[in-house]
Inverse folding.
DNA sequence: GCGAACGGTCAACACGCGTAGAGTGAGTTG
DNA sequence: CAACTCACTCTACGCGTGTTGACCGTTCGC
């Protein structure tokens, strides 16, 4: 095996082990040592590749932050777009585990918390509010974000029986009217 | 000052400091030492009163779990009851900070996570499903819980600008139709 | 083929943590 | 006032952590 292929593989193995542990046990409870052990590697190598535990976490717990999909939607399309965007973050094994690792730690890890609050929730809410318009636009946009976050947590982090096993179609069918109630609040 | 009044006061001071730190920094990042310092007390005293860090956390981070209010509601009343129940958990300074401490750690602290998942979400969803009836009852109940959790987190843990500052009346006015869309899903 | 480069390991350090046990001094009780 | 209780403090232990720098052995460029 060539040298840099070997490098790429072990780096990927470390990353996989890190994602797994960060997403299950959380940042503080996963140790460099346990990640290294799971990747069959020396702890010092993890440091060499990722600089620090924070660096490893930043690399392992990612949240693809493309606001475009949602923010280019019309009022009419917004509910489905928001749902598709949220559920799409969890497609593909690595993507999914990276997203779960991020979500699991977004309440307690300072940097993940900052990103979730400022970049994911606030920025997006501002954009959605612009699409919505009206007096309560900002609040309604915030509540849309709140419901989507609740859905993501229930389905992928808590894995609640009903919500985690539901089909995507059922989720869209039931949640679309929910979001619409915030897009076009009844008089 | 009498001896046991003094005792009660320092115990309360420790508990207040613990709630404050658990709710802001999370379980792992608050130390017995820092809590003791904030309460102007020796770390060993915290151990003497609460047994262990886990014991202190269990005492400080509480979630009043009365399912009655919600589960005695009719289909018609359920949205308002669920909202009132959720918002009610955060009334009163101590109650509020205890609830925030619990929520902040419900993704990463094993015991808080277990309680949130099994007792708060699952048990309640089962009860709500019984009220709802119909094919998707369990899923719809789960989604109601998901939205309520998202609301609680956004308002009290993340303190998102729009959601945290909204009046209770606005919240009820906007969220009631949201929940109703899950109670009576449109054909 | 030889020296550099690099993937990978080993042993160790310094630190902060939860926790334990002996000690102290003021309030309580007979 | 003496004996005692109990809130509270001091000191220290043991452990696991993130992190470091010196060290091997293979692979690459010349």
């Amino acid at each position: 095996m060539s040298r840099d292929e070997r490098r790429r593989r072990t780096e990927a193995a470390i990353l996989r082990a890190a994602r797994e542990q960060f997403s299950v046990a959380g940042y503080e409870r996963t140790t460099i040592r346990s990640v290294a052990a799971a990747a069959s590697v020396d702890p010092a190598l993890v440091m060499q590749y990722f600089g620090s535990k924070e660096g490893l976490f930043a690399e392992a717990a990612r949240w693809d932050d493309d606001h475009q999909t949602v923010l280019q939607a019309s009022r009419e399309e917004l509910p489905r777009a928001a749902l598709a965007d949220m559920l799409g973050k969890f497609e593909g094994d690595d993507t999914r585990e990276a997203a779960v690792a991020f979500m699991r730690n977004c309440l307690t890890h300072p940097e993940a918390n900052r990103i979730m609050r400022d970049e994911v929730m606030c920025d997006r809410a501002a954009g959605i509010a612009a699409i919505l318009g009206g007096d309560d636009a900002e609040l309604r946009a915030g509540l849309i974000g709140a419901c989507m976050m609740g859905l993501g947590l229930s389905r992928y982090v808590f894995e609640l029986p009903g919500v985690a096993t539901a089909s995507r179609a059922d989720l869209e069918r039931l949640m679309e009217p929910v979001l619409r109630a915030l897009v076009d609040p009844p008089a």
